[in-house]
């Protein structure tokens, strides 16, 4: 049949169908893009850190099949003695596989699943229970960290010295051979904010044996001492053996595992980081993790070059150029010289956005402002980029002068909590109160908490650092770990004046074996068992836990028996306890790792 225009009805029908089909395709694409955007921006809605809520979900879906997860008993063999200081993701045996440019071989390179060790890391021959805090700050057993490199190479700087069966720590360093206390006294005169509770958190890049961080503990400042696994053999291991917070890490091609605007102060004492090279990306990373108004302290080259250059194997002209380049870069990054005397120079990060506004309006500025596609807090395997992360202008209370002073800030709801889905001052207050009750119950179950038997503590999947806050008056410190797959609450941990790091528990943690006295987890297996093999997580816990150390495992009843079975295969002793409210769907395991010595000399 033809119409008046002479065209067939089929042709007319085909044309009219194309239009709605095209519209429908566009609409579907738009809806798909919209929903995808919601999922990506709000993915933390699908991840909960509340163990009880997750446990309810697990219980409702699995009760019909079984009351608890059951697995066969297992016994793990001993690794050979050559693995006594094994750090899986920073393994010197693998360094040759990676590039030397910017020391990328020292970054995290975790083994694939088929190369993971399924054996127990042995302690060194002659290992002893670590010396108790605070005595441990000044001495440790030689056989626990049997390395002489620093002792031989740095003896004239008083880093440490070996006497009989012990290493002693006189408190010296490259830039403070006469003692760290005198060095910090001089620093406090330049930065009065170190004495009144304004400065609470710090990071020490290239920390040596962490004497600077150790001294600051008595001054109310909590420091993350950072160093790579390098030719110093065991900087971080020495630090943790002393009972001082530390973590393996290096500023190379990836961001450090911390959120933006977190530390109150950063420190480098002749840490040999080439701050002005590679477009200044290393200094830009320090800028990112320092909160507005925070301080960067540098001692060593090129500071005081006029008096020091002869001892640096260089010329005064070269050092003058280095200093001028450093000052130019810092000025371009909105730092100002705050104070300087002798070998110590202090710069302060801008506390407002006036300087950054000028940056944004200058197309030729270098380093440039980072574009909006780069999330400021993204810091798990995130590449460094040569640009400046500008603080969020919407946040008015994250600057150093705006957060409450310590200790008031510990129990004050951080402004950034409103950036988290469901976060508010009331949820913060509820979490704070909840952990006070839980910590009191934990102390009944494990009386060692609060004594000198427990010093180094890790909360393996914290939310706001509630457990750490609840035990703040005990002689211990807590490394607060926030999952790289969870909602970004680590910034709130730092805003409270606590310390922590991002981590993915499907991989090994950035520390040496036998470095923590207590590991605490709250629903970790419930939340992560769909991604991470429980066996490998528990083996990693065994690696980093000290002999005779403890684990508090708060879990859904569904997983408790399986955890107990694996723990038994690791030579742990565990007992099941009720929670503070006696909830059946959730239990607490109190476990202790036994001290044993290697009988296996063969490679495994």
How would you portray this structure in words?
The protein is of the alpha/beta class and 604 residues long. The protein has two domains: 81-361, Rossmann fold (3-Layer(aba) Sandwich), CATH 3.40.50; 408-593, Rossmann fold, CATH 3.40.50. Helices cover 29% and strands 17% of the residues. It is built from 16 helices and 17 strands. The chain has helices at residues 9-41, 51-62, 149-153, 180-190, 211-217, 235-242, 281-289, 305-308, 316-332, 354-360, 425-445, 466-470, 490-495, 524-528, 534-544, 557-569, and strands at 139-141, 161-163, 166-168, 201-205, 222-227, 246-248, 263-269, 290-299, 335-341, 344-349, 456-459, 477-483, 500-503, 516-522, 545-556, 572-578, 586-593. The strands form three sheets. It has a seven-stranded mixed beta sheet with strand order 6-5-4-7-8-10-9, with helices on both faces. A seven-stranded mixed beta sheet has the order 13-12-11-14-15-17-16. Strand 2 (161-163) and strand 3 form a beta hairpin. The chain is globular. Mean pLDDT is 88; it is low at 1-20 and 31-66.
Report the count of strand segments: 17
Quaternary state reads single chain
Number of helices in the DSSP assignment: 16
Stated plainly, the CATH topology of the largest domain is called Rossmann fold
The helix content is 25-40%
What integer value in Å does the Rg equal? 27 Å
- CATH 4th-level superfamily of the largest domain: Vaccinia Virus protein VP39
Strand content: 15-25%
Which residues sit in consecutive blocks of at least 5 with pLDDT less than 50?
A: 1-20, 31-66
Summing up helix and strand content along with how strands pair, one would put the structural category as alpha/beta
Mean pLDDT: 88
Under the CATH scheme, the architecture of the largest domain is 3-Layer(aba) Sandwich
For the biggest sheet, the summary is: 7 strands, mixed
Q: Which word captures the global form?
A: globular
End-to-end Cα distance: 83 Å
Major beta sheet, strand line-up: 6-5-4-7-8-10-9
Give the CATH class of the largest domain: Alpha Beta
Number of domains: 2
Membrane topology: Single-pass type II membrane protein
Organism: Parasponia andersonii (Sponia andersonii)
Family: Belongs to the methyltransferase superfamily.
GO cellular component, one term: trans-Golgi network
């Amino acid at each position: 049949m033809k119409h008046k225009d002479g065209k067939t009805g089929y042709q007319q029908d085909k044309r009219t169908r194309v239009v709605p089909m095209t519209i429908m395709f566009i609409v579907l694409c738009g809806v798909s893009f919209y929903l995808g955007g919601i999922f990506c921006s709000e993915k933390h809605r699908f991840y909960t850190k509340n163990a009880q809520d997750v446990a309810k979900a697990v219980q409702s879906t699995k009760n019909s099949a079984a009351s608890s997860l059951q697995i066969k008993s297992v016994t793990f063999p001993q690794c050979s003695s050559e693995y006594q200081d094994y750090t899986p993701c920073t393994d010197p045996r693998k360094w040759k596989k990676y590039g030397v440019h910017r020391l990328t071989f020292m970054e995290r390179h975790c083994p694939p699943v088929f190369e993971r060790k399924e054996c127990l890391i042995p302690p060194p021959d002659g290992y002893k229970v670590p010396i108790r805090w605070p005595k441990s700050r000044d001495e440790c057993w030689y056989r626990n960290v049997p390395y002489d490199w620093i002792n031989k190479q740095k003896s004239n700087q008083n880093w440490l010295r070996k006497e009989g069966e012990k290493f002693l720590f006189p408190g010296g360093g490259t830039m403070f051979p006469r003692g760290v206390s005198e060095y910090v006294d001089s620093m406090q005169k330049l930065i009065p904010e170190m004495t009144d509770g304004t400065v609470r958190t710090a990071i020490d890049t290239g920390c040596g044996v962490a004497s600077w961080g150790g001294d600051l503990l008595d001054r109310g400042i909590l420091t993350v001492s950072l160093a790579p696994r390098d030719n110093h053999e065991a900087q971080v291991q020495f630090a943790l053996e002393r009972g001082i917070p530390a973590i393996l890490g290096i500023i190379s091609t990836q961001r450090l595992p911390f959120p933006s605007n977190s530390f109150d102060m950063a420190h480098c004492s002749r840490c040999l980081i080439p701050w002005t090279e590679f477009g200044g990306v290393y200094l830009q990373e320090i800028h990112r993790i320092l909160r507005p108004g925070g301080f960067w302290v540098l001692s060593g080259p090129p500071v005081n070059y006029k008096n020091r250059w002869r001892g640096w194997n260089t010329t005064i002209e070269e050092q003058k150029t280095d200093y001028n380049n450093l000052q130019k870069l810092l000025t371009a990054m909105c730092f100002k010289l705050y104070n300087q005397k002798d070998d110590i120079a202090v710069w302060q990060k801008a506390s407002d956005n006036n300087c950054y506004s000028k940056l944004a309006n200058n197309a030729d500025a270098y380093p440039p402002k980072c574009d909006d596609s780069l999330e400021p807090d993204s810091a798990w395997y995130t590449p460094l980029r040569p640009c400046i992360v500008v603080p969020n202008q919407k946040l008015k209370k994250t600057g150093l002068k705006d957060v409450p002073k310590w200790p008031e800030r510990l129990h004050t709801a951080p402004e950034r909590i409103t950036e988290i889905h469901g976060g508010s001052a009331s949820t913060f207050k509820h979490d704070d109160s909840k952990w006070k009750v839980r910590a009191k119950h934990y102390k009944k179950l494990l009386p060692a908490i609060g004594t000198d038997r427990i010093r180094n503590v890790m909360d393996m999947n914290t939310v706001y650092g509630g457990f750490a806050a609840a035990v703040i008056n005990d002689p211990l410190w807590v490394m607060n770990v926030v999952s790289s797959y969870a909602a970004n609450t680590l910034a709130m941990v730092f805003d409270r004046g606590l310390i922590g790091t991002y981590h993915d528990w499907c991989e090994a943690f950035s520390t040496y074996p036998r470095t923590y006295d207590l590991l605490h987890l709250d629903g970790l297996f419930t939340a992560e068992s769909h991604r991470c093999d429980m066996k490998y997580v528990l083996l990693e816990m065994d690696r980093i836990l000290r002999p005779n150390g403890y684990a508090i495992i708060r879990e859904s009843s569904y997983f408790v028996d399986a955890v107990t079975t694996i723990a038994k295969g690791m030579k742990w002793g565990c007992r099941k306890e009720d929670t503070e409210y006696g909830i059946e769907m959730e239990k607490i395991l109190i476990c202790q790792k036994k001290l044993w010595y290697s009988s296996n000399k063969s490679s495994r």
